[in-house]
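Q: What changes when 2-acetamido-2-deoxy-beta-D-glucopyranose is included in the input?
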Amino acid sequence: MKSALAILSLLPVGSFASWAGNINYLSPSVHHPSLGISIRRVAKRSVPGTEYTPQQLNFTHGVASGDPYATSVILWTRAAPMMDSVNDDGGVTGLSPMYWHGPEVTSTAPVCVEWKVAKDKAMKQVVSNGKAYTSSDIDFTVKVEATHLKPFTYYYYQFNICNSNVKSPIGRTKTAPRPGDHVSRARFAVYSCAFYAYGYFNAYGHSARKDSVDYVLHLGDYIYEYARYGNTGEGPDIGRVPQPEHELFTLYDYRLRYATHRTDEDLLLSHRTFPWIPTWDDHEVADNSWRDGYTKLNNTENSFIEDDPVSVDQRKMNAVRAYFEWMPIRQVDMDDNLRIWRSTAFGDLVDLVMLDTRHYDRSITTLYYNDDYIGSIADEPNRSQMGGRQENWFFRQLSESQKRGASWRLVGSQTVFSYLNNTKPTPSDFNYVFRYDSWQGYTASRNRTLHHMYSNNIQNNIVLAGDSHASWVSDLVWLNSTDPDPRPEDHPDYDPRTGRGAIGVEFASTAVTSPGTGGWNPKLEVTQERSDFAVKINPSLQWTEQHHRGYLELDITHEKVKTTYFGIPSVMSRNRDEFVMGEFEVRKDENRVHRPAGGYKVNSGSAKKYLKV
Ligand SMILES: *[C@@H]1O[C@H](CO)[C@@H](O)[C@H](O)[C@H]1NC(C)=O
Ligand SMILES: *[C@@H]1O[C@H](CO)[C@@H](O)[C@H](O)[C@H]1NC(C)=O
Ligand SMILES: *[C@@H]1O[C@H](CO)[C@@H](O)[C@H](O)[C@H]1NC(C)=O
Ligand SMILES: *[C@@H]1O[C@H](CO)[C@@H](O)[C@H](O)[C@H]1NC(C)=O
Ligand SMILES: *[C@@H]1O[C@H](CO)[C@@H](O)[C@H](O)[C@H]1NC(C)=O
Ligand SMILES: *[C@@H]1O[C@H](CO)[C@@H](O)[C@H](O)[C@H]1NC(C)=O
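A: The predicted holo structure follows.
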């Protein structure tokens, strides 16, 4: 956090230090300090007599930690006035305290929060602590960096309102190993696509209750910008109404949507149990967003008058600001707050590269009315899914990872990377998964990535993807032929039977709650038929499951990556049910899904038939 210090140094020494401790006040640009919140002005509002009493304040949305480094981690909470419980409606009518983010503040005074990090759950052996202020300017969020920690170590943390006994829940976190450290095992849970109205976030709670991973990776669609049920207009009536009850445009809208999500008990549990390393997908801003727009925006005068009360840039700024306020992440480039792409080393075991294939510098994508046009230009070499700057950085990360000898390269991608064609020969509604909104609409970007891997012999690559609301396991391969009949002679460079010619594996995860290819209440015959069809016509696809919501867990050692896909039987209630949909292995240097022998297991969905034991 060199840049944070740079800003600090502009302030008088001492008095302002704890004000600047809250990263959310900082300008997203070192060269434009005026874009930050003026900490001096906030501090001036701290007038005795107008301040909130500790009893008027609470930690309304839990605690969270994220972006672990070897010696530091980001800690998050929200310390807000409980407006309505101060009144006498008990939060029954009007805005409940959980949702209060509005401008009707009775006092503009900032709130003082203390935090501490301890080695033990009882919070006795404190190793790091500090003080930070927050205020309505940043939605009462608190984000601090706890430093001077030991690598790959569990810590507990807690916030309290200054000089009081009003305390947050205790969170647990874990630092990353140092890049050079020998690490024998690391485990990750992988999530994407959590639509609030469509179900309970049981998936988030499962890994926490099992305590089965070290870190959580989120590939985006943590929230959706839609009013309630998205553009389908229908869904279950289970009382999950996301706030506000209209589409998100303003900063206030986006903040309130994050606040709604952080009332789900299982999401809260995951945040306080594991450090998260998230990236965003399209819906953190708007459906099918790209560099200059999103679905609903036709860039006609009408789009602004009828649909969008704000400009593309303003909406993106609102969305991005709320994201940084609410998510426990670092801004790795202080002069580019649209840059969320970043990497983390986990000892000699794993390099994790988190991409932004959505907002950063993405060429135009499918916006429904232009789908055929995008299909026709998908192969144009001048299209890019992430922009030249990010792409060069990405390739450099892969090369450096190989050079330093990390056993595995994990790549977090929002959208599905591998060739996937579910187009039935006869017209049908099957086109859902043949989407030019994925890497399939940017084949030049995909080819350049594969070219970089093949030509530099960069092996042991694991691509992770979300966005599609279904589960997919594919050999990672540059397909020279996509002939649906997988005879080896059709694929001179790739044999789907053995996986020869592949250079890694893609594990694409289903949604936490968002409806899949069969709608929010799918029929098994329909989803099964789709899975069967998909494995039949896609050469590199080894398994798919299109029925269940769920998540996956990666258990990584130097010898292998073991991947378990968990399915959730029902998200219509908060419950603890789950089952193993499929279990897969990637052995070191095999660069493909390990074929039947050795624990290959599938309980749901459809696998290539020659892989069945
Ligand atoms: C403070 O928040 C916690 C967790 O959200 C809640 O359990 C508790 O009842 C709240 N305290 C008050 C005084 O409202
Ligand atoms: C956007 O433009 C397309 C093509 O002209 C049209 O079909 C669609 O209705 C427009 N959408 C909006 C929201 O204006
Ligand atoms: C991209 O290249 C194609 C030719 O392959 C050309 O027709 C098109 O105008 C180019 N697009 C841009 C945005 O440069
Ligand atoms: C997708 O598969 C269908 C056959 O099912 C085929 O006609 C079509 O050409 C394929 N599309 C692409 C882009 O590979
Ligand atoms: C990407 O590679 C495939 C397979 O070799 C090829 O058919 C396609 O034309 C390539 N596309 C681009 C844009 O390079
Ligand atoms: C076929 O795939 C290989 C990688 O296996 C790649 O190097 C080659 O350029 C591809 N050929 C074409 C024509 O796309």
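Observations recorded in class: The chain is about 20% helix and 20% strand.
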